[in-house]
Amino acid sequence: MSKRYVGLALCLAACTPTLNWREVPLEGGAVALFPCKPEHLARTLSLAGQPVTMTLHACQAAGLRFAVAQADVRSPARVNAALAALVAAQARNLQTLLPLSEPVQVPGMTSNVQARRYVLEGRRPDGSAVQAQLLVFAHGTQVLQATVLDGTSDAAAVRTFMDALHVR
């Protein structure tokens, strides 16, 4: 009888998805679809020369790190510079140059020429290679950056995460 339960437990474990997708509402009306339960962290930092409170929603699943960072820059005149600063900071953190990008259209976003998607090939502080899939956009004065680190191994998960972003 106990072998039967062990077999059932193994079968159920095999059926458990590695990526357990869930919709997560963010401040300002944005919504993200995470494959794991994100942790939330907020801190004040300088973005494009202005102090802002940056909130990070992040989790790790299937060897990938999924994150959405957001901040309210409080003025439409600061949005472009803030989006550019987010991308530049990510490139600097990965010790790489900014690659070519493609424009994006996130449902419900505020139209902006800085709304773009990037694939950055860089290095971690220990020198190991890393890839970041990056998408930046704005909704009003909220700037958002969605990132998947090491997204080369699961293109479908990266696409699901990025394509599900929207603003209500």
Topology (SSEs and partners):
Layout (H helix, E strand, L loop, with lengths): L1 H14 L6 E4 L4 E5 L4 E9 L2 E12 L2 E9 L6 H15 L8 E2 L12 E8 L5 E11 L2 E8 L5 H9 L2 E2 L1
Antiparallel strand pairs: 1-2, 2-10, 3-4, 4-5, 5-9, 6-7, 7-8, 8-9
Commentary on this structure:
With 168 residues, this protein is of the alpha+beta class. The chain has one domain (19-167): Protein Transport Mog1p, Chain A, CATH 3.40.1000. The protein contains three helices and ten strands. The protein has helices spanning 2-15, 79-93, 155-163, and strands at residues 22-25, 30-34, 39-47, 50-61, 64-72, 102-103, 116-123, 129-139, 142-149, 166-167. Strands 3-4-5-9-8-7-6 form a seven-stranded antiparallel beta sheet. Strands 1-2-10 form a three-stranded antiparallel beta sheet. β3 and β4 form a beta hairpin. The N and C termini lie far apart (52 Å). Residues 1-16 have low confidence and may be disordered.
- Per DSSP, what share of the residues sits in E-state strands of 2 or more residues? 35-45%
CATH superfamily: Mog1/PsbP, alpha/beta/alpha sandwich
Low-confidence stretches: 1-16
Strand order of the largest sheet: 3-4-5-9-8-7-6
Rounded to the nearest angstrom, the radius of gyration is 18 Å
CATH class: Alpha Beta
- Average pLDDT: 86
Largest sheet: 7 strands, antiparallel
Assembly state here? single chain
CATH-scheme architecture: 3-Layer(aba) Sandwich
Structural class assignment: alpha+beta
Number of beta-strand segments: 10
The helix/strand series, from N terminus to C terminus, equals: HEEEEEHEEEEHE
Shape: globular
Question: Into which percent range does the helicity of residues fall?
Answer: 10-25%
